[in-house]
Structure formats: C-alpha cells, structure tokens
C-alpha cells in the first residue's frame, strides 16, 4: 500500500475520525482505519478502502478485531461483514 495514498484516504474521510486530534489523524494504524470505516463508512468508503489496502488485508484485520473478548462492532455490522468476507475474501 502506498503511504501517500493512505494518508490522502484518511484526509478525505476526516469526518469519520472526528474524535481523533488533528495532529494524530494521519498517524492512525490501518487497524483503526479499518474499524472506523467498516463501522461508520458508506459503501463507497468501504470499497475505496478495499481497493487501497486489498480485501485480504482488510479481512485479516477484521478477523483479528473480532477474535478477542471485546468486539467493537455493532451486531448487525459484525454479521454483515462476516458474510461479506466469507463470500469475497480468501
């Protein structure tokens, strides 16, 4: 993944990171970006993230995030993306 493209993606989707300080937004981990976009993003935001990072990478991050005791995804979002990645990711 191109770091400049990643930074530009975060800047374009700044509205979704409203709770992050301005000086910290561009240093967000891919894991934090995936969680925020899957939870709050529009379909086009999600599609763009998958194009940028790759579906397998997004899927791996999602799997790691939901494998622990604490899961931050709403039940409907969790269910939807489990089905989505089951069908579209390897």
Q: What general form does the structure show?
A: globular
Count helical runs: 6
Number of individual domains: 1
What's the number of extended β-strand segments?
0
Return the structural class.
mainly alpha
> How much helical structure, as a percent, in the residues?
55-70%
Largest β-sheet summary: none
**Content of β-strand:** under 5%
Low-confidence parts lasting 5 or more residues at pLDDT below 50? none
Note the gap between the termini: 19 Å
CA-atom Rg in angstroms: 13 Å
Mean pLDDT: 94
Order of helices and strands: HHHHHH
What tags apply to this protein structure?
90 residues, mainly alpha, 6 helices
Explain briefly what this protein structure is.
With 90 residues, the chain is mainly alpha-helical. It is 69% helix and 0% strand. The chain has helices at 3-12, 22-25, 30-40, 43-53, 55-66, 75-88.
Characterize the structure shown.
The structure is a single chain. The protein has 90 residues and is an all-alpha fold. It has one domain (3-88). Helix content is 69%, strand content 0%. Helix 3 packs across helix 5.
Outline the fold blueprint.
Layout lengths: L2 H10 L9 H4 L4 H11 L2 H11 L1 H12 L8 H14 L2
